[in-house]
Amino acid sequence: MLTEINFDGIIGPTHNYAGLSRGNIASASNAGDVSQPRAAALQGVDKMRHNLALGLPQGFFMPLDRPDSPWLETLGTTLEDAEPHLRAQAWSASSMWAANAATVSPAADSGDGKCHLTVANLVTMPHRSHEWPGTLAQLRLAFANPAFAVHAPVPAPFGDEGAANHMRLCDGHGSPGVEIFVYGMSGGRFPARQHLDASKAIARRHRLDPARTLFIRQSDSAIQGGAFHNDVVAVANERVLFTHESAFEDREAAHAQIRAAFPEVEIVEVPASAVSLPDAIKSYLFNAQLVSLPENGGMGLVLPSEARETPAVWNWLEAHVAGNGPIRKLFPVNVRQSMANGGGPACLRLRVVADPATVDRRFMADEAKLDRIAAAIAKHWPEAIAAADLASAGLVADVRRARGALLEALDLSELL
User: Fold this and answer.
1) Model confidence, pTM
2) Active-site residue 347, yes or no?
């Protein structure tokens, strides 16, 4: 039976605050701070436990091998000799944000009846540009069943950052839907990371119906305000589009396009007069998991605890839930370590509509498996990493042993 599965990226043992993501305000603001990889990863596990308890299917992806010494070799250097900024880029644990792993089109939308996944190339940011080979290997393992088609990345220079810039509207997850690709235009102090040509290429690869495929421009004000991905200002689930007033460059035209393609849509728009764009970005109000709760429980919003601590945001949410809006329940979760590096609950997960029986069971979560993951993290993940630690050969050995222990615990040693 087709259902939506959220695959969370397990936060890796090299989680650190190097401030590598230009345009990501939280990442830049916390550059140089001491990170807590163990606490970060356990927070991620707790979020998965929370979603399992809600009755939501849950999967996970493994951290990639970091620091990436082979990548540094292509630059003619080594971990020992690399300039500090290159060393930091090799250490990045950014694959934890699985929303950037790939763009996913369910079988109901594709011309060949397969679920298509195109791994993101992430070429705009050097620290992320070398993720895709490891991510592709993992996707091909998890989704090896013939029900899936897993594609290599769109070639450079067409920047693609995956599902963080992609939304889907539908009557139900297993029903045919309308796919919305949100792209940016270059210019300004912060780069637009999703290119229109990349989005169009993915739509063609996934054999999407042009009549049910939209390409909408993200607003320049949102990008320059720190909404480096569309999922910082908008999220969709089934018939609901939850969006900030400033999300799209031409708001009225965007809404008209969406309504024409999917007349059943309910657009829940938060006006800037109620929640400013800076408050929306600071709280990651929209970088939340908008989910359909089991047993006709309506929709819930799994959002960062920072949203509750931002008065304008929480006031708007409470008023919405008290009324007749489609979002019926609020579930704040603690992902502070991820938030401090620029990623909320939605960044940590990739949504895949599929029959769970077609997914490699090693990537599907249950309580016992999450116990094994948490035990490996508690035993092997570093408690803290400071900027100076990235030059430590001892830490390199420690984090590689840590990842190896996790892979062994989950019978995934072939990813070593």
Assistant:
1) 0.96
2) yes
> Which candidate in 229, 244, 320, 380 is catalytic?
229
CA 89, distance to chain mean position in Å, is 19
φ, ψ of residue 278 to 5 degrees: the values are -60, -40
CA distances from 158 to 121, 136, 235, 282, 336 (A): 8, 18, 23, 29, 32
- In the residue annotation, 229 being an active-site residue is answered as yes
Q: Which residues of 44-60 are buried (b: 16+ CB within 10 A; e: fewer)?
A: bbebbbbbbebebbbbb
The pLDDT score that the predictor gives to residue 364 is 98
Give φ, ψ of 301 to 5 degrees.
-120, 110
266 beta partners: 240
Q: Which residues lie closer than 8 Å to 137 by C-beta, 6 or more apart?
A: 415
Q: What is the pLDDT of residue 19?
A: 78
Give the pLDDT score at 25: 65
Asked whether residue 56 carries a pLDDT value surpassing 80, the answer given is yes
Instruction: For residue 277, count other CB atoms closer than 10 A to its CB.
Output: 21
Number of residues that this document lists for the chain:
416
Average pLDDT, the chain: 95
Q: 157 preceded by cis ω (within 30°)?
A: yes
Between CA 348 and CA 40 the distance in angstroms is: 12
pLDDT digits (tens, 9 = 90+) for 386-405: 999 999 999 999 999 999 99
C-alpha distance from residue 82 to each of 69, 70, 396 (Å)? 10, 12, 14
Whole-angstrom distance between the N-terminal and C-terminal Cα of the chain? 32
- For 11, left (φ over 0), alpha (ψ -120 to 50), or beta? beta
Which among 131, 161, 179, 306 is annotated as catalytic?
161
Question: Which one from 116, 195, 347, 380 is the annotated catalytic residue?
Answer: 347
* Cis-peptide into 67, omega within 30 deg: yes
Q: 242, 234 in Cβ contact below 8 A?
A: yes
